[in-house]
Design brief:
It is a single chain. This protein is 23% helix and 30% strand. The protein is built from four helices and ten strands. It has a five-stranded mixed β-sheet, with no helix packed on it. It has a five-stranded mixed β-sheet with strand order 3-6-5-7-8, covered by helices on one side. A hairpin with a 4-residue loop joins strand 5 and strand 6.
Length: 184
C-alpha cells in the first residue's frame, strides 16, 4: 500500500484518509479508504480477480509542474500512479473497473474546474479502455467517498450540511465602546 498514515478502527474496519494529491492502493479486506471532494475528482479502481483496489484524489485535470509533489495534483499523473501501483500488487490492466466521484461546482461564476475534472476522468478511462461502472459526479455539493479496495465497494454521500454551515451569514460583532477590553 502507498503511504499509509494513521488508521482509525470502527465497525470492524480500519479507515485511512486519502488527501488531495494522494493515491492509495491495498488488498486488505478490513480497510476503508476515505476522501472528501468538492471540485476535485477521485477515481476508485478495482481488479475483481486479484482483489486489489485503489483510489486517487486529484485537484486539476491537467497542468505543468516539474516537481513530483506538484505533479500529484494533476489527473493524468494521479491515474498513472494508481494504475502502476495496482499492477505492482498483481492487478491486470484489462480487468480494471472504475468508479469516479466529485467534480462539483463549488462556486458559481468561476471556471468550471469540476466539469473539466469529470471530462478528463471519463476521457482517460475511455482512451485506456478501463470500464467505468459507476459515477456520482457534478452538482454543487461536496462528497465523502468511502472505498473498500479489496472488495471494490464504494459509497458516496453528499456533504450538503457542511456547505450550508460554511455559507451561512456570520453575525457581525460590534466593537465595545466602553470599558478596558475591545473584542475584535
Amino acid at each position: 500500500m502507498c503511504g499509509m498514515s494513521a488508521l482509525a478502527a470502527r465497525d470492524g474496519f480500519r479507515r485511512a484518509t486519502v488527501a488531495q494529491g494522494e493515491t492509495r492502493v491495498s488488498n486488505e479486506t478490513d480497510l476503508v479508504l476515505t476522501t472528501v471532494l468538492g471540485s476535485c475528482v477521485a477515481a476508485c479502481f478495482y481488479d475483481p480477480v486479484a482483489h486489489v483496489g485503489g483510489i486517487n484524489h486529484y485537484l486539476l485535470a491537467d497542468g505543468t509542474a516539474s516537481d513530483p509533489a506538484s505533479m500529484q495534483r494533476y489527473g493524468v499523473y494521479a491515474m498513472e500512479v494508481l494504475i502502476n501501483a495496482m499492477l505492482s500488487m498483481g492487478a491486470a490492466r484489462h480487468r480494471l473497473k472504475a468508479r469516479i466521484f466529485g467534480g462539483a461546482t463549488m462556486r458559481q461564476g468561476f471556471r468550471d474546474i469540476g466539469g473539466t475534472n469529470i471530462e478528463f476522468a471519463r476521457s482517460f478511462l475511455r482512451n485506456e479502455r478501463i470500464a467505468l461502472v459507476g459515477e456520482d459526479v457534478g452538482g454543487s455539493s461536496a462528497r465523502r467517498v468511502e472505498f473498500r479496495p479489496a472488495a471494490g465497494l464504494a459509497r458516496c454521500r453528499s456533504v450538503t450540511e457542511a456547505i450550508r454551515q460554511q455559507s451561512a451569514p456570520r453575525p457581525v460583532i460590534q466593537p465595545a465602546t466602553t470599558g478596558d477590553v475591545e473584542f475584535f
